[in-house]
Amino acid sequence: MKLRRQIQGAVCFFIAVTLLVQVFGCGTIIYPERRGQKSGRIDPGIAILDGIGLIFFIIPGLVAYAIDFTTGAIYLPGGHRSSDSMRIVYVDPRELGQEKIKEVLVREAGVPGDIQLEDAKVYVLEGSEDIRTMLADAASVSFRSR
User: Fold this and answer.
1) Cβ contacts of 138 within 8 Å, gap of 6 or more
2) Which residues are within 8 A (CB) of 102 and not within 5 positions of it... i.e. 6 or more apart?
3) Cα torsion through 75, 80, 81, 86, rounded to 10
4) Are 25 and 68 in contact (CB under 8 A)?
5) How does residue 1 score in pLDDT terms, banded at 50, 70 and 90?
6) Which residues pair with 116 in a beta bridge?
7) Which one of 59, 71, 86, 104 is most buried, counting C-beta atoms within 10 A?
8) 67 vs 21, 55, 94, 135, CA distance in Å?
């Protein structure tokens, strides 16, 4: 009976330590919503916090890095560079014209106000999955400003 209690105590301790170690990484504690990311740009703040743990306590610091890389919590959200990011702007199609397009580009993308739209192309998209395909096709189109 005494051996059984010792085994139960050891199993409980092992489970508690395992659960505690899973949240030991700084990124996992601070940004739990990031867990599950596969790759991307590393968040320098989380890397520094994990590094501080590494400087003061070698084993916990290594564990923190291992957990944050394994869970993906060390990566910035989105997994791609800011130059690849896009913003969806909803505009009433009845208001859509050259002036409205210029207004949206200046306000949302920081494009110079004297942009010329003679070479602009309009694409009708059936869904959000079409956006990257159309952007790749339109990559050769450049905006000229006077």
Assistant:
1) 121, 123
2) 113, 115, 117
3) -130
4) yes
5) confident
6) 144
7) 71
8) 8, 17, 51, 36
Question: How far is it, in rounded angstroms, from Cα 42 to Cα 84?
Answer: 16
Residues in a beta bridge with 115: 145
How many degrees, rounded to 5, is the angle at CA 70 between CA 65 and CA 76? Answer: 80
pLDDT given for residue 144 in this prediction: 40
Q: What percent of the chain has pLDDT over 90?
A: 0
Say if CB 74 and CB 27 are below 8 A apart. Answer: yes
Q: Taking 60 as the threshold, does the pLDDT of residue 33 lie above it?
A: yes
- Name the pTM for this structure: 0.40
- How do residues 63-107 score in pLDDT, each as one tens digit? 888 888 888 888 888 654 444 456 777 888 888 888 888 888 888
Q: Helix H segments across the chain?
A: 2-22, 26-30, 44-56, 58-71, 98-109, 130-137
Torsion of CA 14, 17, 19, 21, to 10 degrees: -140
Structure tokens at 79: 């997994």
DSSP state letter for 20: H
| Amino acid in position 14 | F
